[in-house]
Design goal:
The protein is an alpha/beta fold. The protein has 13 helices and twelve strands.
């Protein structure tokens, strides 16, 4: 049974945060949700967050607040489910409410764990891979679009009672496992997202349309190759991505025309399977928000510079997306020619 004495907060009631908070609440955890959307706060208790899609439909009343300052502390566990760029500020606002042994859990795309550790201390941070999907349809309305798991772990690979409690909480929303290699797990997902999310922003097209174009598949492969070279320099053990089906090193190691053919066929299959998916960063742009590129391709670039590994394609992707965010470049398939 849930420990009802634990005080839990979740900041950010978008797709992933909203679904997670609602399912945890339904399972008996006492979760306080902070949302910067007044409409979401108003709807949270009556009639509740509206979940639909995979797993069925439900209205789940949730305890929601407008600001972190309203939270009832001190907190045992705090989940940060904001956009990646907002995560450090969210952690800063939570800091006065955290118990010394509190867990601060990142639920972002990309790798935010190091930035959170700078704010709250590495000993508090729990990294988390979100391996399932959801779409935000407006305040309090979230569609679960794909199945998958959570993977959680301490940055130093250790385990403790607080980490086990986090696992039990998240297991009410999706199957959850503990990893002693959370940075490798996070980086594995980052590689795929850096290919798919960023190219979707640059070209403005669904994944199936993008990966049907050979030139785009070649850029996809180049982004991945740079990311793996950086991982090697960081001495990261990176497990296969794509639900365990894509071993990056084996994928890149195949030589000759047959190896090239196999790579392109695999990417075409990925594109066909997820052909209707539109980049979450593109959706952020369409809502007037910035992308998460600095925590995806940007992370690869920063680590590349730190370890003296060149990342020209990822550098170009980051620069181009920043130009799009600033309104200095349109979203267009024509952008891909400039990535060379």
């Amino acid at each position: 049974m849930p420990n009802r004495n634990l005080k839990i907060a979740l900041v950010g009631a978008g797709a992933i945060g909203g679904v997670t908070a609602a399912k945890m609440t339904r399972a008996g955890w006492d979760v306080q949700v902070v949302s910067n959307r007044p409409e979401a706060v108003a709807l949270a208790q009556d009639p509740g967050f509206h979940l639909f899609g995979i797993g069925g439909e439900a209205l789940i009343p949730v305890r929601a607040l407008k600001t972190v300052a309203e939270l009832d502390g001190p907190l045992d566990v705090a989940f940060v489910a904001t956009k990646a760029a907002d995560a450090p500020a969210a952690a800063e606002s939570l800091l006065p409410l955290l118990k010394p042994d509190a867990a601060l859990v990142s639920l972002q795309n990309g790798i935010c764990e190091e930035a959170l550790a700078e704010v709250a201390g590495a000993e508090r941070v729990v990294g988390c891979v979100v391996g399932w999907g959801a779409t935000f349809h407006g305040p309090g309305r979230m569609e679960v679009t794909s199945e998958g798991e959570f993977v959680v772990g301490r940055l130093d690979g250790s385990t403790d009672a607080r980490l086990e409690a986090v696992r039990d909480m998240l297991a009410t929303a999706a199957p959850t496992r503990v990893s002693t290699n959370i940075m490798g797990e996070l980086y594995s997902k980052l590689i795929v997202n850096s290919c798919i999310n960023s190219l979707g922003v640059i070209a403005g097209a669904p994944l199936g349309q993008l990966l049907a174009v050979r030139k785009i598949r070649e850029i996809f492969i180049a982004i991945m190759a740079e990311a793996v070279a950086v991982a090697d320099a960081m001495a990261l053990t990176v497990p296969p991505g794509g639900g365990g089906k894509l071993d990056y090193r084996s994928f890149l190691a195949q030589t000759g025309w047959l190896g090239s053919l196999r790579r392109h066929l695999m990417i075409r299959l990925i594109g066909f399977k997820y052909r209707r998916i539109r980049s979450s960063s593109l959706q952020s742009l369409e809502r007037g928000r910035k992308t998460e590129v600095d925590f995806l391709n940007g992370y690869i670039c920063r680590q590349g510079r730190r370890h003296e590994v060149p990342t020209p394609v990822n550098d170009a992707v980051v620069k181009m997306i920043h130009e799009i965010e600033a309104g200095a470049r349109p979203i267009s398939m024509a952008n891909l020619a400039a990535l060379g």
